[in-house]
Design brief:
single chain; alpha+beta; Fumarylacetoacetate hydrolase, domain 2; eight-stranded mixed β-sheet; 7 helices; 24% helix; globular
């Protein structure tokens, strides 16, 4: 990662390159341009992709900055947009075990991440909320969920948080399962388990992400305020990986369970088909 600031031309070119690779399903070996040195630059690149999309933004994913880079980046998390065409609300049958298919970039980066998905209950304009006062009152529902991280850039995550943020946060899907009743209490005792191709990958407390899911929700509100982004009522916040970021391949089958509340079985398929 260079410390030389990107020019406006470089930012626009990188954003257009990343956006077109997604639209054209064009797998890319190596990061296709200079890696932004700051998150401010990375979000400027992300904005180019947002402007190039014909899809509405229905939510945002939260990703973690590695501990050793948090001082340099000035934060613990990053965000990326969730576009309408990759946001999926499951049927009751699918939330209790019926298998379904999820598209990914075959040959690119592919990972699944069990996450709590938070639904916003009101519009939030930049600067209207002091998150230091708490954010639980802004929650409409909390869902058992999955984030699909997928990108045409094969090794995107290896380039660090600014590269990831540039490519819309390595985001390619948010799946909402069952809404968790009495979520404030339920998630403190619930466990989330991930199984891929019949192998147990991990189990963790459902509320185990750094400082809890409300910290991620607050970060989203603050980051959007800094970027001048309004969050409409109903916006989703995919709050962060619970059992981990689990890299896998097209054709893999997975089961993600949130205690006895929700079980989701799914297969990853080529988004070209």
């Amino acid at each position: 990662m260079s410390t030389t600031p990107l020019t406006t031309e470089q930012i626009n070119e990188l954003g257009q390159t990343l956006s077109s690779a997604r639209k054209e399903v064009r797998i890319t070996e190596g990061f296709p341009g200079p890696i932004p040195s700051t998150l401010k630059e990375a979000y400027a690149v992300q904005n180019v992709s947002i402007e190039a999309s014909d899809q509405a933004i229905v939510g945002w994913k939260i990703g973690m900055v590695p501990p050793e880079l948090r001082e340099e980046m000035g934060c613990e998390r990053i965000i990326g947009p969730v576009f309408e065409d990759v946001a999926i609300k499951l049927t009751e049958a699918q939330s209790t075990g019926e298998a379904f298919e999820l598209p990914v970039f075959a040959g690119g980066f592919i990972a699944i991440e069990p996450e709590l998905v938070i639904e916003l209950n009101q519009d939030i304009v930049p600067g209207s909320i002091n998150t230091a006062d708490g954010v639980e009152h802004l929650v409409k529902n909390v869902y058992a969920g999955i984030e699909i991280a997928s990108s045409p850039v094969i090794d995107l995550n290896s380039y660090g948080p600014t590269a990831i943020a540039s490519d819309i946060g390595n985001q390619y899907g948010v799946i909402m399962g069952t809404a968790i009743a009495d979520w404030k209490t339920a998630i403190t005792t619930m466990e989330t388990t991930t199984v891929i191709n019949d192998q147990h990958i991990g189990t963790a407390k459902t509320d185990c992400i750094l400082n809890g899911p409300m910290a991620a929700f607050a970060f989203l509100i603050d980051c959007c305020a800094e970027r001048g982004i309004t969050l409409p009522a109903g916006s989703l916040c995919s709050s962060g990986a619970i059992t981990g970021v689990h890299e896998t391949l097209v054709g893999s089958t997975s089961t993600v369970s949130f205690g006895d509340v929700c079980t989701m079985n799914f297969t990853l398929v080529d988004n070209k088909k």
